[in-house]
Amino acid sequence: MDVIEQLQEDLRSGRIDAHRLVDLLATLQRQLQAAQQRITDLEQRNAELQKQLAAPSGTAKLEEPYSMRAEEKRQQAGGKKRRRRKDKGPRGRVRTADKLAQAERIEEVYPEGVQKSECWLSHTRPVWRLEQGRAVLVAYRVYRAPNNQYGKIPGVLGRSEFALEVVVSIAYLVYVVGLSFDKVCLVLHFFGNLKLSKSQADSLLHQLARHWLNEFDVLCTLLANSLVVHADETSWSLNSVWAFLSEKARLLLFGVHKDAQTLQTLLDPDTFAGILISDDAAVYGHFSQAQKCWAHLLRKAIKLTLQEPNNTDYRQFADRLLEIYRAATRVQHDGRLGDAGRARQVAALEDELLELCSPLWFAELPPLQGPDDDYRRLVNEIMRLMLAEELFTFVTAKPVEQPNGQMQTVGPTNNEAERTLRNPAQARQTGRTSKTVQGARRQTIVTSVLESLRLYLSSFTLPNVIEEVGGWMATGRSCFEELLEKLGLELPAQSLLDEILPSPTPSG
């Protein structure tokens, strides 16, 4: 039974009075009026929305695609003004005419061996130079001769608009000092008032590497015919970086593999007659004359004393090993001794070293645990190197002369090569290394040539480097090639760089 039927039944039976029925009807009447008013309001609101949707402006706005142009129209319709781009001057490449108008002076360049009256103006080229610590824009008027010869602008690579001193400065700051392209551009602008972009700096370094490729091949040949070579390597973003430092050349090879094949290509153990100074890595174990790094042995001995401070055997061993090393360095620098005297002193040092290591070495202990095993391995390493005559080679070796006339003694450690690799190692840790083979080749060529110039110049400064390199462009032959010709050596038929680090694109 629903509510209406129940109400009728109550009314017939007299269970509900007339007053209660009137109140119920009044309540229902009020609810009905409220519902009718709500329906009227909603119908009115619905009619207004339909009128807005049917309007043309509203339809165009909804169907209009979102874009900058549409947004500008909406802002203009709303009374907002369009923001205009501030005029920052011309964008893109600067015209040659505008550069020539900014030149501080004009110089004329004529072909060599031709009368000026027989030449005519061919073109004018602006070139940025560094003079007295600041950038100077010079306009060169290049003249042409009847035999199709052109005047050559001094100290400029190809058709570049930057002189050689600018390019060398960029190369030194990037590869020797270790600055990024951003910082190099800031330095040149702050100190020399030279505005340079990163893309321009990158392009100039590529151009310099192509120009110095032949010099790198000459340095590789000089390295293979050196008397003393320091060698060391460390990991890099691409494979490894390998340093070879001699009295004739200083090579740093980036992105190469650390294996016997790479070493044989640069420094073949079967033909190299000099002394190789290195650590005890297996790749260096086939040279006829070698000097192993004493610093590595001493560091291992000192490490034992730090791990076990209360162990008297470790401390006595480290102290005695250091005394023998210092005695060997004194013998090397003792000018009173001749070759025979030094040989006798080396024999005495070997006897002292044998006396120090023989108790543990003769015991032939099996592998141990912890520092005891490190101690056993260190003693075995020292005895193996001593029997191979690779610990006191520096005592009897004669000093070698560098091309700049300075004498270089044969060192007992490989610290020089380790110091040379310090900057590449720090660049690897901070992610500031080349990520491509082309970048590794460029850094290999430029860094090797700059580092090798230290051996040929009395003072490694920018003016001396520019004077030397500028002479190469004038004579067509570098100081490296002059030494190569003096020694009667010949270049290989193929570039060694193409063998150890092939270019992804043809170099020609």
SSE blueprint and pairings:
Elements: H1 3-13, H2 18-54, H3 56-63, H4 68-77, H5 96-101, E1 105-109, E2 120-131, E3 134-144, H6 164-177, H7 181-192, H8 198-211, H9 213-224, E4 228-235, E5 240-246, E6 250-256, H10 260-266, E7 275-278, E8 290-292, H11 294-307, H12 312-333, H13 339-363, H14 371-387, H15 393-396, E9 400-401, E10 407-408, H16 415-420, H17 422-429, H18 437-453, H19 462-475, H20 479-486, H21 496-500
Parallel strand pairs: 1-3, 4-7, 7-8
Antiparallel strand pairs: 2-3, 4-5, 5-6, 9-10
Treating each run of at least 4 consecutive H or I residues as one helix, how many helices? 21
Gap between N and C termini:
104 Å
- Give the low-pLDDT segments: 58-63
Shape: flat
Strand content: 5-15%
Q: Write down the Rg.
A: 42 Å
The largest β sheet comes out as: 5 strands, mixed
Give me the count of strands.
Answer: 10
Strand order of the largest sheet: 6-5-4-7-8
Range of helix content: 40-55%
User: What structural class do the secondary elements suggest?
Assistant: alpha/beta
Mean pLDDT: 89
Account of the protein in words:
It is a single chain. The N and C termini lie far apart (104 Å). Helix content is 53%, strand content 12%. With 508 residues, the protein is α/β, with parallel strands linked by helices. Helix 6 packs across helix 8 (198-211), helix 11 (294-307) runs antiparallel to helix 14 (371-387) and helix 13 packs antiparallel against helix 14 (371-387). Strands 6-5-4-7-8 form a five-stranded mixed sheet, sandwiched between helices. A three-stranded mixed sheet has the order 1-3-2.
